[in-house]
Specification:
11 strands, alpha/beta, 9 helices
Length: 241
């Protein structure tokens, strides 16, 4: 009998921990929705860069983000990110966006707008799919603090840098392990020291170090944790009970 996710799994942590891959895999295996909140901030950042708005002009950033349509899909097998109806799934992974996203996501009003939309998406997914896996940097602390399972993924800086470099190479982007390490450490510092919703583990989050774990092992551990928290239910003929 198939097991399905009934509820919310909140996955937080810095880049390179395998968070997004694990979240998509878990959602796929458990027939749940999936939300990459980081993609939403990346879409906003892409819009800011395209409009030529200065990263130090918070008022202009807020005004722009309030006018654009940020669309993200919740299908874990094929997540999409859209800007005003156009698919920008590839563009938001560019290094230019990597360098600017922390500045845009640090603006409190931007976070407020996107968190409101994230909560709407989560409610919709729970109504339609029964469960959703959400990954980001403030999911367990801000977006869904009442989630029954919160996991904060970690990994050493060297491991995360190697993973980021490999991802860039697979996507055709130029990146050395040294450049990737500098990038992830810079992002870690900016995200963990921002005043609004800093990157940190929720007090009741489970800490999971993925440095020496394959993705299958991470997914298996997450499934075990979800089961322990009573988040797995039986799925019979398209229904859950």
């Amino acid at each position: 009998m198939a097991r399905a996710l009934c509820g919310v799994v909140a996955l937080d942590g810095p880049s390179g921990t395998g968070k997004t891959t694990a979240a998509r895999r878990l959602a796929t295996e458990l027939g749940a929705g999936y939300l990459d909140t980081g993609a939403m901030y990346r879409v906003a950042t892409l819009a800011v860069l395209r409009a030529g708005v200065g990263l130090d002009d918070a008022a202009a950033i807020v005004e722009l983000v309030s006018r654009i349509d940020i669309g993200v899909g919740t299908d874990p097998k094929e997540p999409r990110a859209g800007l005003d109806g156009m698919d920008v799934s590839e563009e938001i992974r560019a290094e230019e966006v990597n360098q600017a996203v922390s500045a845009v996501s640090a603006v409190p009003e931007v976070r407020e707008m996107l968190v409101t939309e994230q909560r709407r998406i989560i409610r919709k997914a729970l109504d339609e799919d029964g469960g959703i896996v959400v990954d980001g940097r403030d999911i367990g602390t801000v977006v869904v603090p009442d989630a029954r399972l919160k996991v904060f993924l970690t990994a050493s800086a060297d491991v995360r840098a190697r993973r980021r470099s490999a991802q860039d190479a697979a996507a055709g982007r130029s990146s050395s392990p040294e450049e990737a390490k500098a990038s992830v450490e810079r992002r870690d510092h900016l995200d963990s020291t921002r005043a609004s919703s800093p990157l940190r583990a929720a007090d009741d989050a489970v800490l999971l170090d993925t440095s020496d774990l394959a993705i299958d092992e991470v997914t298996a551990k997450l499934t075990e944790l979800a089961d322990d928290r009573g988040l797995l239910c039986n799925e019979v003929a398209g229904t859950r009970r």
